[in-house]
Amino acid sequence: MSDFRPCIVVPVYNHEHAIARVLGQIEAHALPCILVDDGSAESCRQALVALADANSGWVTLHRHPSNQGKGGAVCTALRLAGELGYTHAVQIDADGQHDTRDIPRFLEAARAEPQALVSGAPVYDDSVPKGRLYGRYLTHVWIWINTLSLDIRDSMCGFRVYPLASTLALLARCRLGQRMDFDPEIMVRLHWAGVPVRQLPTAVSYPLDGVSHFALWRDNALISGMHARLFFGMLWRSPRLVWRNIRRNIRRTIARKTR
Fold first, then answer.
1. Could you write out the DSSP letters of every residue in 154-207?
2. CB atoms near residue 170 (< 10 Å)
3. CB atoms within 10 A of CB 149
4. pTM (2 decimals)?
5. Strand, coil or helix: 16
6. Where does 6-257 sit in CATH, by number?
7. Buried b (16+ CB within 10 A) or exposed e, 172-205
8. What's the confidence (pLDDT) of residue 232?
9. Is residue 107 a contact partner of residue 201, using CB atoms and an 8 Å limit?
10. Which of 9, 15, 16, 63 has its CA nearest to residue 32?
11. CA atoms within 13 A on the CB side of 129
12. Are 58 and 32 in contact (CB under 8 A)?
């Protein structure tokens, strides 16, 4: 792709103890970075301002006056990336759970298939909370139902490369969940829109500063509501989704026979 201009976007909410190390890891990849401070406390706000000032050549900082949730912060970052002329945005979390050494591998996949959403398929170490790990499997099943496919192996990993043209078009025509329901919902809706999904294994650990903003009851309720919305959205889309799967299987069969 001749016009391939990637950046990195990082939503931040009270991760002042991890973000400096994460930025240090990102800097090695020589990419511009957009930080969105999602209404953090004063200590984190000051830390982010200092980091942005010290790295003004490649870091852009935007602040939400109040907390909007991870999804809200990511949406702001993606829109800013589009306004700044980038074609792709690498989303990565601020708490250090993602392996930034995989950024070149993700970008290579995005460059090879620029229309695709490239996302992580987590490989966990022993730090992952078992309740969170097992709970993900229920979401996996619902995602397979709501896409009528097994194309999405994991919809909750926040390490991914968005193709901005199709992603911003989606954000312009529908409002998505703004908190922990954002990552799976946008992935399903992009899949519905015909955006290819490619997933790469990547190591995930929990987190550098011990801070998790997953609110058990609130976020599980939001995720359950999201699955319900997607299910009813899938029903009226199901003829198109089924036909798309049939056509894809036909193409694969023909390709195998012509080898």
1. -S----EEEEHHHHHHHHHH-PPPSSTTHHHHHHHHHHHTT--EEEEEEEE---
2. 18
3. 16
4. 0.87
5. coil
6. 3.90.550.10
7. eeeebbbbbbbbbbbbbbbbbeebebbbbebebb
8. 87
9. no
10. 9
11. 11
12. yes
In contact, 64 and 76? CB cutoff 8 Å: yes
Of the candidates 13, 198, 30, the one whose C-alpha atom is nearest the C-alpha of residue 93 is: 13
Query: What are the residues facing 121 on neighbouring strands?
Result: 201
Q: Which helix (H) or strand (E) covers residue 4, if one does?
A: none
Q: Residue 215 and residue 238: Cα distance in Å, rounded? A: 32
- Joined together, the tokens standing for residue 149 give 């496919």
DSSP for 108-127 reads HHHHHSTTSEEEEEEEE-TT
Within 8 A by CB and 6+ apart from 160, the residues are: 90, 91, 106, 117, 118, 119, 120, 187
Helix axes of 130-147 and 182-192: crossing angle, nearest 10 degrees? 20
92 burial (CB, 10 Å; 0-12 / 13-18 / 19+) is buried
Encoded amino acid at 62, one letter: H
**Contact predicate 80/32, CB 8 Å:** no
Cα atoms in the 13 Å half-sphere on the side-chain side of 62: 17
Q: For the segment 160-208, what is each residue's pLDDT rounded down to a tens digit? A: 999 999 999 999 998 888 777 889 999 999 999 999 999 999 998 876 5
